[in-house]
Structures are given as C-alpha cells and as structure tokens.
Predict the 3D structure of the following.
Amino acid sequence: MTATTVDPSTTTRTGHRSPLTAIAGVGALAAFVPAALVWWDLLWGVTSPAAVADALEAAPVEPAGLLLTCYALLGIVVVGRLTARLARGRETAAIRLLPLLGAAHLLLLAASFAAPAAAVLVGTQVLDTGVTATAAATSLLVMNVGQPLSALVGAAFLFAVTAAARAGGAPRTLMIVSTVFAVGLLLPPVGWAVTYLMALWFAGVGIWLSLRD
C-alpha cells in the first residue's frame, strides 16, 4: 500500500462566477425604468400647487416610490461589491469613501422621489383628504433639494471610483465612464439626464463584477 502526498503549492483553486452582483445591477435598472417612466413629464406645464396635487393623485407615484427604494437598495449591493473588488487589502481614502458616497447618492435620490409618494399616501390612505396643495408644494420642495444633492454626492462617488480604480488596476473603461458620468452630473443642463442614466452604470458595473469574480 502506498501513500500519495500532495504539495499544497502545486494545487490551484478554481473559482466560480457568482451572478448575484449582476442580478443586483440589472434588477436596479429594471426597478428604475418603470419608476422613471411614471415621472417622465408628469408635472410638465403644471403651474400651481393645486395642479401639482391633482397630477400626483392621478399618477401611480406610490409604486414608483417603492421601485426607487428597491433601486437604491440594489445599487448599494453593487457599491459594496465594487468596494470589495477595488480594495483587495488596500486602505485608501477613496476606498473608504466609496460605500458612504454611493449609499448617500442612492438614498438621497430615493428620498427625493419618495416625498411625493408619501404626500399621496398620507392624503389618500391616512387622512382621507386627498393630496392637498400644501403637501404637494412641500413634496416638490424636498424633490428640488434632494435631487441636486444626490447629483453632487453621486459625482463625488464616481470620482472616488475613478481614483480607487486607478490605484487598483481596474479597467480603463471603468475609469473613463465613471469620470464622464461624474462630470455630467455636475453640469446643470444635463445633470438630470445623467441621474437617470446612472441606472445603466450600476447595471454595467454589476455585470462586470460578476464576470470578474
């Protein structure tokens, strides 16, 4: 009887590609698109708080707010996995900022769209008075404060991604796309459009991370 010994240095570990990050990224995109369609031109031409209240009450803003919350949560999953992928044992300022800025960007965006949904929910489900002009104006105020803040934090997040990717040897494509999106978020004429396109960024990064696992 003979015994066979195995040298650990000659063995290799086989990894497998996990689809979870890709599912999170694509799921974030799938949640964002119908919510964005609800808001597309919803308040176009509306000039008074009462008209805003009527528009909100007639549109499915509550499901849209829920979908945007799902988008934020799934996007945070992608941010966490990206942080782990770029860190690889390193501890830099950009790496530390990634999860904080990414989560703040997503949650601010979700909160800005959740405000009108909350106004509808309270007015129709809690108070049974319908959406009042005051509630509609307040929700618009929250939206117009939250969206620009979300864009600013999102730009900082993308710049941090670029810095961390450069230090971590990530593909140049990730750095270029992240930088372009960050600059776009800072430009008022196109910032709102880039905010909508960020869902594509999370989907693409989620797929890339799954392929690189």
Notes: Helices lie at 20-39, 49-58, 61-87, 93-126, 133-168, 172-186, 188-212.
